[in-house]
Amino acid sequence: MLRTRWREMTSRPALKWTFSTLFWLPMGICFTELLYTVKSVTGRSMQPTLNPDSSVWHDIVLFDRWSVKASRDYNRGDVVAIKSPYDSKLLVKRIVALQGDKVKTLPPYPDPEVKIPEGYAWVEGDEPFKSEDSNHFGPIPLALIDSKLTFIVWPWNRIGPLRKPTLPNPKAQRGPAWRAQKAEVEREERRRARVQVASSST
Amino acid sequence: MVWLHNVQRIVRDATQQFSNVEWKTVRPKVVTALKVVNFVCAWHLFVEHVGWIRYVDGPSMVPTMNVTGEWIVENRMISPKNLARGDLITFVSPLDPSRFVCKRLIGLPGDVICVDPMGKYVPSTEHVVIPKGHIWLSGDNANASRDSREYGPVPMALVRGKFVARVWPLDKLTIFRSNFRYIDEDP
């Protein structure tokens, strides 16, 4: 009796599809929790790397959880998603310094310079004025790092891996785009200049 | 050029063999393998989000837990709201992301805590207010424990679950209850 009911139910294609989706759901959830997931990034704290003013869309980015969870493979300069120490929400920031480094902090932080303790990292947004980062909450435990941002999936004109800023061609025609590219390199240099990398970990 | 001829032959044989295998006969095996993977995934999700039994060791929670040889049921279905002072909290160590540790919850956000009553790390007069979204954790065996006295308040994002009951060894079966007593409460 039950078996015939079951057969009737599963003979309907819509129901069959629902059941098979539910059946395979654990594999899908595990894939997004352990390997890779795609999320949209909101907020202006990572401008101009993500969500630049010129873009009308929120950036959609590939989050690499595997390299963080399996091999703790991240370094200074990587863009990572961290869980906020205050409310566990995901924040997208850049790792500026790791354990042993000395960082010159920016205004909201009480001390002018900090040495990052063992097991901690210093994270900052690329746009320091619009970012809630380590200058507010101090160094964060490495265990709060959730995933690494590796690839911009959308918008279409910026599809591709997240890459380091490069100097613009000095012979090219100078316009707003040229100056923006130059400014990005200078911003990166200024951020590097505030960090004294620990001698043992170079 | 004999070796090249050999390689060509091996490749040709292999492709011929592969083309002889029909998808109809392989398909059930692939589906079975995927079902096994799917089951492992479901089990992983259960352990991560619902809870299971865990082996504990280390001296920091003596006398609540022994140094070795105990298995304890962990509850992963927690939220920041249902944490209470006196709970046995499991969390990822702020000092080392690969370490999973258990300590007792002493203070919730807004509480004023004496950092170290024994004066080992800082003078025993120093007090802190626990910030929003953080908790204060400490080992039951203060002499052999690295806890909030050393690394300060712990963000709730590091908390994974709480320990409910000891199930092994069987003669020491216990359900962990809060051993917290408020000293200004009426007896």
TrEMBL record, chain A:
<feature type="region of interest" description="Disordered">
    <location>
        <begin position="164"/>
        <end position="202"/>
    </location>
</feature>
<keyword id="KW-0496">Mitochondrion</keyword>
<keyword id="KW-0472">Membrane</keyword>
<feature type="transmembrane region" description="Helical">
    <location>
        <begin position="21"/>
        <end position="38"/>
    </location>
</feature>
<keyword id="KW-0378">Hydrolase</keyword>
<keyword id="KW-0645">Protease</keyword>
<protein>
    <recommendedName>
        <fullName>Mitochondrial inner membrane protease subunit 2</fullName>
    </recommendedName>
</protein>
<keyword id="KW-0999">Mitochondrion inner membrane</keyword>
<keyword id="KW-0812">Transmembrane</keyword>
<comment type="similarity">
    <text>Belongs to the peptidase S26 family. IMP2 subfamily.</text>
</comment>
<dbReference type="InterPro" id="IPR019533">
    <property type="entry name" value="Peptidase_S26"/>
</dbReference>
<feature type="compositionally biased region" description="Basic and acidic residues">
    <location>
        <begin position="181"/>
        <end position="191"/>
    </location>
</feature>
<dbReference type="InterPro" id="IPR036286">
    <property type="entry name" value="LexA/Signal_pep-like_sf"/>
</dbReference>
<dbReference type="InterPro" id="IPR037730">
    <property type="entry name" value="IMP2"/>
</dbReference>
<feature type="domain" description="Peptidase S26">
    <location>
        <begin position="16"/>
        <end position="104"/>
    </location>
</feature>
<keyword id="KW-1133">Transmembrane helix</keyword>
<dbReference type="Pfam" id="PF10502">
    <property type="entry name" value="Peptidase_S26"/>
</dbReference>
<dbReference type="InterPro" id="IPR000223">
    <property type="entry name" value="Pept_S26A_signal_pept_1"/>
</dbReference>
From TrEMBL, chain B:
<feature type="domain" description="Peptidase S26">
    <location>
        <begin position="123"/>
        <end position="168"/>
    </location>
</feature>
<dbReference type="Pfam" id="PF10502">
    <property type="entry name" value="Peptidase_S26"/>
</dbReference>
<dbReference type="InterPro" id="IPR019757">
    <property type="entry name" value="Pept_S26A_signal_pept_1_Lys-AS"/>
</dbReference>
<keyword id="KW-0378">Hydrolase</keyword>
<dbReference type="InterPro" id="IPR036286">
    <property type="entry name" value="LexA/Signal_pep-like_sf"/>
</dbReference>
<dbReference type="InterPro" id="IPR000223">
    <property type="entry name" value="Pept_S26A_signal_pept_1"/>
</dbReference>
<keyword id="KW-0496">Mitochondrion</keyword>
<feature type="domain" description="Peptidase S26">
    <location>
        <begin position="50"/>
        <end position="116"/>
    </location>
</feature>
<keyword id="KW-0999">Mitochondrion inner membrane</keyword>
<dbReference type="InterPro" id="IPR052064">
    <property type="entry name" value="Mito_IMP1_subunit"/>
</dbReference>
<keyword id="KW-0472">Membrane</keyword>
<protein>
    <recommendedName>
        <fullName>Peptidase S26 domain-containing protein</fullName>
    </recommendedName>
</protein>
<dbReference type="InterPro" id="IPR019533">
    <property type="entry name" value="Peptidase_S26"/>
</dbReference>
<comment type="similarity">
    <text>Belongs to the peptidase S26 family. IMP1 subfamily.</text>
</comment>
